[in-house]
Design brief:
Layout: H1 14-23, H2 29-39, H3 54-63, E1 70-76, E2 82-87, E3 93-101, E4 104-108, E5 112-114, E6 129-132, H4 135-148, E7 157-160, H5 170-181, E8 193-197, H6 201-208, E9 215-219, H7 225-231, H8 235-238, H9 240-254, E10 258-264, H10 272-281, E11 287-293, H11 307-319, E12 323-326, H12 340-351
This protein binds S-adenosyl-L-homocysteine.
């Protein structure tokens, strides 16, 4: 049974909260006080907001909640990466990741419960799409991570690379972006926020018009439509040409560099010839290439290529002037790569 969800403060913009204060016959400055409790001081209940009158706090609690999710479990690795399993009000679970790389502290967030894209290498798509996350559910993932940091640590970056396709939940994602970016919200600079997409070309074009200069990462994974459609079914409708045209537009309007994600899958997209096609495709586009070997998911019969193949692939790109970063999936050793934790949890629940 799905429980009815009351609106959480984390779903609201400053203007909406100000309007709520007016309706409740309180001065508008109360809105900023409430937001400061939530985003600066980590308050999770109205009771903690000691500079609001008891009466106002009581009235707020009758109809609203500060947050609507809670942390179920946190799994740690040796590299300072921590995986958060977040419990939602309807008993669904999603995952978020805290990544530490020196002073850079990144929150990786999910945007949907499950995913409809069904990419043939990704654990998140195995259970299909259950529903979109609300704005508050997206924002709260960052909040939980921020509240968990040590006193001398500061959250510096946010990446939308968890479960789900962000541009398929466009309105809630864009509103959450504004809250994350706002000075009254989480205060993270737009240039420190990255949206990763399977390549929803219309969504990319719309995002370019929003006036928020977030970074865009496109999960390309192949330079050829035949190969891409084999591993990413949604490509059949979109097509690589269309994605590249949308990426160019995004760059022209926002002046933000584009990143292309490319996972290397043995025997599928990792040959020297594939690297050469990629070079042709990306000619004249100012971009970074993030190459990473596939993190194998048991349910798919795919594996990453050998080290030599990976090196040859990257060298071929670099020889033609592409900026290449080879990434390692930090969550691997705790089953924390994209969607795997949620999948595991689902299996356990299912067995019981
Ligand atoms: N739907 C969005 C964001 C979520 S996935 C997107 O497609 O970009 C974040 C990244 O993890 C994507 O680049 C995705 O292709 C990649 N990914 C998914 N499964 C993976 C796996 N098994 N190994 C390596 N990367 C994977």
């Amino acid at each position: 049974m799905i429980k009815i969800q009351t609106v959480s403060i984390t779903s609201l913009s400053l203007a909406e909260l100000e309007a709520l204060c007016i309706v409740m016959k309180e001065p508008v400055y109360r809105a900023r006080q409430i937001l400061s409790w939530v985003y600066d001081k980590g308050a999770t209940t109205f009771d903690q907001m000691s500079n609001l009158s008891k009466d106002f706090r009581r009235k707020l609690s009758e109809k609203h909640r500060v947050i609507q999710t809670n942390v179920d479990t946190i799994t740690q690795t040796a590299h300072g990466t921590e995986k958060f399993l977040i419990h939602l009000a309807d008993d669904n679970v999603i995952e978020s990741v805290l990544l530490r790389e020196g002073k850079r502290i990144t929150a990786c967030v999910s945007t949907q419960v499950g995913c409809a894209m069904a990419c043939r290498f990704c654990a998140s798509g195995l259970l299909g799409l259950e529903r979109n996350l609300t704005t508050g559910e997206i924002v709260e993932q960052v909040l939980h991570i921020k509240n968990h940091l040590l006193p001398d640590e500061h959250l510096t970056n946010i990446v939308f690379m968890g479960i789900g396709e962000p541009l398929a939940n466009y309105d809630n994602v864009v509103k959450s972006l504004r809250i994350m970016n706002a000075e009254w919200g989480l205060g993270i600079g737009a240039r420190h926020i990255t949206i990763s997409t399977v390549g929803a070309a219309d969504g990319i074009r719309r995002l370019a018009q929003e006036g928020i200069q977030v970074n865009l990462a496109i999960s390309l994974h192949a330079a050829d439509d035949m190969i891409r459609s084999q591993i990413i079914p949604s490509n059949k409708k979109i097509g690589i040409k269309n994605i590249i045209a949308a990426a160019r537009e995004y760059f022209e309007i926002t002046r933000r560099d584009i990143s292309f994600e490319y996972i290397l899958i043995d025997g599928v997209n990792a040959a020297k010839q594939d690297a050469e096609s990629l070079v042709q495709l990306l000619k004249g586009i100012q971009c970074n290439m993030n190459v990473l070997p596939l993190n194998p998911v048991k349910e798919f019969n795919l594996k990453p290529p050998s080290r030599e193949t990976i090196e040859l692939f990257c060298k071929t790109l670099e020889k033609h002037g592409l900026v290449v970063t080879v990434r390692k999936k930090k969550g691997d050793n705790i089953n924390a790569a994209c969607g795997q934790l949620r999948l595991q949890r689902h299996k356990i629940l299912w067995k019981n």
